Amino acid sequence: MDRRRVNGPEQSIAPILKNVPVRTPLLDKGGKRVDQRTIDDLRPIFLKTGLVTQANGSAYIEVGNTKAVCAVYGPRQMKRAGFSSNGTLNCEFKFSTFSCTKRRTHMRDSEEKGYSQVLVEALAPAVRLELLPKSAVDIYINVLENDGTSSCLAAAIVAASTALADAGIEMLDQVTACSAVLSEKQIIMDGTEAEEQQKEGDVMISYMPSLNEVTHILQSGISDPAIISQAVEKCIDGCSKIYSVMSTALLQSLSNNNNDVDENKS
Amino acid sequence: METTAVTPGQRLGYAEDYTAGDGTYERDGILYASVVGLRSVDSNMDGELPTMTVVREKEQSAVPEVGSVITGKVIRVAPHSALIAIMVVGDTPCREDFSGSIRTQDVRAVEKDKVKIINSFRPGDIVRAEVISLGDARSYYLSTAKNEFGVIFATSVAGATMIPISWQEMQCPKTKTIEYRKCAKPF
Lengths: 266, 187
Prior knowledge:
The structure holds two protein chains of two kinds. Chain A is an alpha+beta fold. Chain A is about 30% helix and about 25% strand. In chain A, strands 1-2-3-5-4 form a five-stranded mixed β-sheet. A four-stranded antiparallel β-sheet of chain A has the order 7-6-8-9, sandwiched between helices. In chain A, helix 1 (about 110-125) crosses helix 2 (about 150-165) and helix 2 runs parallel beside helix 4. The radius of gyration of chain B is 22 Å and the shape is elongated. The chains are: A alpha+beta, B mainly beta. Chain B: Pfam families: ECR1_N, EXOSC1.
């Protein structure tokens, strides 16, 4: 008996595993998902700018049931002292306490801080920060309803990019984002919360359509490298579809401004 | 001149046909838009390429740059500098104030070593100044060392709007007392 060390029990018994929950198939016989989408279909998107009047730019996005608001303030002086010849992009990503299935805390937890960093990494390559020395651009995202976390993150990136353009901040290109859930060797585009419960992995791509450059890839879980590269291609295709929605929303806000000006004149 | 609405990242033309103006940038020989707005082509004089610009509807909140003229309010005076809240850059107001400071050597062009900040600015004065450098972490460096820069509006101790009588003095119309400021030349 070794008295110098802390010994474990001499006899140990393996724990009893509970029954593994039965997985419901995500696709039915006709290849359709619960909400009648095919495996490649994205949910319909509603995107509008100018919701938050006090901010320099803002956007509201709805993707299926996911709803998020983004407000952009800037360029303004950096709160923290520190000289930098390029501007800085700050992001605060917050789930509202009622937005997820399980109630979230008021304080930003580590998951939200991680997502804030993801947003900065996805958007920073597209913003011309070299034109804004000593200034900061602050992005605030508030998620009102979360139906699938990686697709919610993608929606937040789309909203943030639209809000930045609405604020008049110079950008190289808009940033679109699309996500996919990987489950049983299938690539399910734009997964909902129910589909994410059964995932083995997921992928989210942020992409600049006009310059054809990927700005950020977020992958989690277990997956095959071949499936990942296929999923990346599919997400880039999805991103190109979203681009037209973003451009329409921005051009619509432009024509609304013009109409207001004409009404004021006459 | 046709004007079409464009979004950031939209291709506008080839770099060999146009010069990149405001709101556009060039990459790999192609001009792209960098803001949401109306695209317009200004034809230059012969021999030069026409300039492609994108005129944006919503003005971006102004950022002070070296050489820009700013209007601001004096927040605090210290022995060797005055702290200014920059409120307007050129003609564009700032959504949120930037912070600038005027050091003693930048108050005026003559007798720089004999400057007393308390006789040049007081808290509450509105000044017009020029940005001379990006400054340090906390504030931009401003200068009022030209005739057209300095205090443009000040209130006397009695509460009335003062009238500048020389580049160094302002007079209160109510009490006729003279207070010292570095005044800007009225237009």
